[in-house]
Amino acid sequence: MAEFKGWPFSEEEEKEGAIDEIVEFCSLSNLKNLEVNKSGSLKTMKRQTNSFFRKGEAGDYVNFLSPSAVELYSKIVDGKLSGSGDCTAGSLKQRPGIPSPGTPL
């Protein structure tokens, strides 16, 4: 991602484990356990902040979204990410272990 954005890591940063630290910091398990994400609420949405995290399993969206909602979100994501390489919703549908929209787990 850093290289894609034009800010690649130096050899020294890579050797010192900067990438591994960032990956760990951004992991779902770490984000779920940050105090700010465990307590509090968003007044504008009337939701607890801990309600924003689910299991974090690829493809679990099919248990929460209707097939038409999945198609709508896929089109939006495809449009926003078009031209950015192999990271569109359409490309994800083709990957092993990630079900196509509307496919039950």
Automatic annotation (TrEMBL):
Domain of life: Eukaryota
Stretch list, region Disordered: 86-105
Occurrences of domain Sulfotransferase (ranges): 1-85
Pfam families associated with the record: Sulfotransfer_1 (PF00685)
Keywords from the named record: Transferase
Molecular function GO labels: sulfotransferase activity
SUPFAM superfamilies to which the protein is assigned, alphabetical: P-loop containing nucleoside triphosphate hydrolases
Enzyme Commission number, as recorded: 2.8.2.-
Similarity field: Belongs to the sulfotransferase 1 family.
The protein's name: Sulfotransferase
Organism: Gossypium aridum (American cotton)
Phylogenetic placement of the source organism: Eukaryota, Viridiplantae, Streptophyta, Embryophyta, Tracheophyta
